[in-house]
Amino acid sequence: MTNTCARLLLILSLTHVMPVFSADISPVGKVNVDDVATDSKADSAAMSAADNVKKDSEIISTDEKESGKEKESQEARSNVKQIPLDDKAQEQPTNTDGLAVMSQKKLAYKRSPNSFNRLMKPPSKRNPPPAKDGIHDPDNDGTYVLQPPKDSFSQLSKSNSGNRVDWVAALQKGEINPRYDRLDPEKVPIILDLNIVREVKGSMPDVVYPHKQHTEWLDCSNCHPAIFIPMKGANNISMASILLGEKCGVCHGKVAFPVSECRKCHSKNKSE
User: Which one, out of 1, 67, 140, 213, has a CA that is 20 to 30 A from the CA of 98?
Assistant: First the structure.
């Protein structure tokens, strides 16, 4: 009897409790699949929009950086110092790269009348008229009165180098009679007939420096002591220094025969 009553009470309690439990839990715990799908789509759209905004901002930032770099590059180009050249050089397109600037400097140096070995030129460019030689002023009317070198040199002793004139032979033969003093036409040079022999290393013949041919044209002060110290062993002369326009290169290759004529200086054999 007791067990039967207990079972009845349990059944009654479950009958009344379950509806209440179901009524309380169901509305809260029920999940709407359509709502979840809609929310998921909205979240994905929001995330996609955020990604697009981020990408747009990155593109804008990249464009701004590239624009800034291009602006800096343009400012750098505008600040490059231009090298003044003659009209022919200025007609060429201007490039502001480092190598182009170096090329312009080299071009300006080559066109300088004092550039080293300017006498070593092809036949078509030898002895141009005064207005085109890079030495005389083409805007000066007096430049065009001067006799063109090709005409004045045509009767002089020939040479295989430089301006194709053997000036020492022309002087010895009396083809020219240069004035020693600019103000006094009667003044004669003090000629020093003295050869200086410089021994060189290797098999190359030794160098003979003739004072006679130089003092027929020049005064002692033209070379001593600024270029050569008049003391034995005091002058360090090398082909490197000459090629750089120092020592003998102050004149030779500019106003005297170029260093391509080796045997004119290296004229004493080792066995002599």
Answer: 67
Domain boundaries, the chain: 86-114, 116-264
Segment 213-222, tens digit of pLDDT:
999 999 999 9
This prediction's pTM = 0.54
Q: Tokens 């020219």 map to which residue?
A: 176
CB 207 within 8 A of CB 259: no
Distance (Å, rounded) from C-alpha 171 to C-alpha 178?
Answer: 8
Pairwise CA distance, residues 24 & 141, whole Å: 118
* Structural tokens at position 103: 């090329």
Taking only the tens place, the pLDDT of each residue in 134-159 is 889 999 999 999 999 999 999 999 99
Question: How many angstroms separate the most distant Cα atoms in the chain?
Answer: 169
For the domain made up of 116-264, give the CATH fold: Cytochrome C3 (3.90.10)
In sequence order, which residues have a C-beta less than 8 Å from that of residue 170 and are 6 or more positions away? 156, 157, 176
Closest CA to 230 of 238, 243, 221, 218: 221
Query: Backbone phi, then psi, for 262, in 5-degree steps?
Result: -60, -45
**First-residue to last-residue Cα distance in the chain:** 156
Element (H, E) at 174: none
